UniProtKB/TrEMBL annotation:
Pfam families, sorted: FAD_binding_2
Organism per entry: Mycobacterium avium subsp. hominissuis
Name used for this protein in its record: 3-ketosteroid-delta-1-dehydrogenase
PANTHER family registered for this protein in UniProt: 3-OXOSTEROID 1-DEHYDROGENASE, FUMARATE REDUCTASE
Reported cofactor(s): FAD
GO biological process: steroid metabolic process
GO MF term set: steroid dehydrogenase activity, acting on the CH-CH group of donors
Length: 183
């Protein structure tokens, strides 16, 4: 039972009028099959589980709610979806051919990072500053918390806090230089 691991899930239908480039199929990057059993053999998963996963996905797509992964529950998800569907992010898997390709997990880097203060200085767990250490962009905790506002949304905060950090470093250097000359 259960769902297949992410790298084994077949893709959605190819939109009408579009074709999978033959080179992708010939290279084996994309697999094509006329049945779920045939696809299961090509991607190395149990046929019964693949067929059940497809059946369950179609059931949820028609119902309009993804009870398993909550796809389509956020405004961001729905913005890029198809508003004519019960759930803009789910489209039932239709008639063959079916296509599959390996999905390699990655880290976008916008939901974690080092905590910083208003000068972009890195903070320890006790909220004290780590002297000389600054973090901006995807190395720092996002100003948006656990939300993801969309593609490019991290660029503005990265530039802003990069500027803030640079101004703070410059002020620290100027203060040290002024104190050195006073001695």
């Amino acid at each position: 039972g259960g769902h297949l691991p992410l790298p084994k899930i077949p893709g959605a239908p190819v939109p009408t009028g579009r074709k999978i480039p033959p080179a992708w199929l010939e290279s084996g990057v994309v697999k094509a099959a006329m049945t779920w059993d045939e696809m299961a053999a090509q991607i190395g998963v149990p046929a019964a589980e693949l067929a059940e996963t497809a059946r369950r996905f179609n059931e949820l797509a028609r119902k309009g709610h993804d009870d398993d992964f909550n796809r389509g529950d956020s405004v961001y998800d729905n913005y890029y979806g198809d508003p004519t569907l019960p759930n803009p992010n789910l489209y039932p898997l239709g008639d063959p051919p079916y296509y599959a390709f390996r999905i390699v997990l990655g880290d976008l880097g916008t939901s974690g990072g080092l905590r910083t203060d208003e000068h972009a200085r890195v903070l320890r767990a006790d909220d004290t500053v780590v002297p000389g250490l600054y973090a901006v962009g995807n190395t720092s905790a996002p100003v948006m918390g656990r939300s993801y506002a969309g593609a490019g949304a991290t660029i503005g905060p990265a530039m802003t806090f990069g500027y803030v950090a640079a101004k703070h470093v410059a002020a620290q250097v100027a203060n040290r230089a002024a104190n050195t000359h006073r001695r």
